[in-house]
Amino acid sequence: MASAMKFDFKNFDPDKAYPLKSSHMGHAYIINNIEKTNPGSMKDTEALESAYKMIGFTVHKHLNLARQVL
Length: 70
Known about the structure:
By secondary structure, this protein is an alpha+beta fold.
């Protein structure tokens, strides 16, 4: 099982980061076909949703989409 990625604050260089200064960053789409993924995928989906919302994105979460929709 893969371990969760951790952010390396010690080596963070703000000059190399993409500036996120807008009050509305845009839209983020999360597609999670839970039936075809591992059991921890819902936790990952919730973590992504929370992170995107925290930095100003409008989040659109879609679960178990049919092939025809994709």
